[in-house]
Amino acid sequence: MPLEHTVDWTEMRHGSRADFEMLGPLFxxxxxxxxxxxxxxxxxxxxxxKLGYQIDRYDHSLQSGSRAMRAGESPDMIVSAxxxxxxxxxxxxxxxEAAAALxxxxxxxxxxxxxxxxxIFQGYYYFHHVGGDRDARDRYLDSPWYESCxxxxxxxxxxxxxxxxxxLVIDDFMPVLAEVFARPSRVxxxxxxxx
Length: 195
What we know:
This protein is mainly alpha-helical.
């Protein structure tokens, strides 16, 4: 196995154009090659305590993705259903926005909007029990994706806590995950090199 070339500096300010032209592709190849497995790793963080529900957050996610796949949803919506709560483990206060940010470079705008807003739309089913406004989602009535988010929460979120539902396993989702995350990123590089 060939020895990997490394830079000879420890502070980026000492790097040269050649260094960064070498580093960029190494990182991109590594990051893109590991992207699906890294996202599955985040999903695996949801395994564990049921937190009062009948299933854990991991099985909830599998159930959401399973229902979307069986309903014939687009690859973008299947992946969004599977990963809509993936940020629960590291961004509990804004998991919807964090999950949407993870998906944004790869899925269509409707799916991004649905994931970003699913938390408030999901509130329709329980906010009124905890002193909140179950109709808080109505502030988005003018959105072209209001009905899509309403349907997403109704069909692929609020009903996905059933321990008897026959969830698909993560391997069943690998082809659709590979398809979606093989797409070129819609987000431009932070500072692309000018050739």
